[in-house]
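Changelog note: in this version the structure field was regenerated for every chain. One regenerated record is shown below for reference.
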Amino acid sequence: MSHALILTDGKPGHENQSKALAEGLGCSFDLVPCTYPTKGRKTLSYLCDRVGLRPDLTGVLPAVRAAAAKRRPDLIIGAGSNTFYSLKLLKRALGVPCVAILTPGGYRLGGFDAILAPVFDNPPRRANLFPIPTNLTPARPDFYTAQTAAFYERYVPKRNRAVAVIIGGKNPVADVAPDWLRTQLEAVFAATEGCERWVTTSRRTSPEAEAVVDSFPFDYKLLFSKDRFNPIPAFVTECERLFVTAESTGMLSEAVAVGHAAVEVLDNLTVTTGKFARFVDNLCDEGYAHRFDGALGEARRKVNLASTLAALKARLGL
């Protein structure tokens, strides 16, 4: 089995994508923390990359060498801007290929052996760039089997059909305003008569939004402020329909990659241009999702990255 070193900035959305890629490539992996000690060093990294210098600005090299001494990696993976410069540094130091996840804005795209770039970033066409329609999500069937079993240890359904609502929170381009959410949930309930209704909030959901959720008679309800169990793996594998707020790119990515559910987008974007809007537009245009307007769609197409991963393995020589 091939082995990867994953540079992690500690952000779950970045680290989980790196793990998903390693698993998708059939690699075992070790995690190595990688962040800049100061903003000044990160700024300097852009200049160093432009002129081809490779000082260790994050201080990651000793930890990587120690990990490599135990088991030499076949590749190095990193997601997010705190890892991009160090990927090139370690490629030179260890002589192994490096893969960047997300578009390395501000850095030269040359020097990365491969870049997995979401299509909503409008990436340029390059031999080392592999466009993907969503974020990377876990691909192991055993992960979903175990998580679904854990869900059913907590909750026993009363009906055979279930739909689920996955609620995120406010960010610079979206809001989950209580009045908006109440209207959306009323429409969801009206459109799903006869089904069990499950819901989860997230770490970004406000107390006001959670109060609205709590006022509805869901059959299964998880409020993140009260319970940190993750029911989403069970939601995506067991439900016939998923309703997901539009700013939740990670949760939407999982919804359109796993299971058989039709996906409905609860469009809470306050900025209708930019990458979040392009992300949702692309999912809807390609049949992966449907914007919920009170009527239900049948967007059940699922993202399949098998050909992308096969091409990536060939490029990396794995």
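Spot check on this record: The chain is about 40% helix and 15% strand. The chain has a mean pLDDT of 94.
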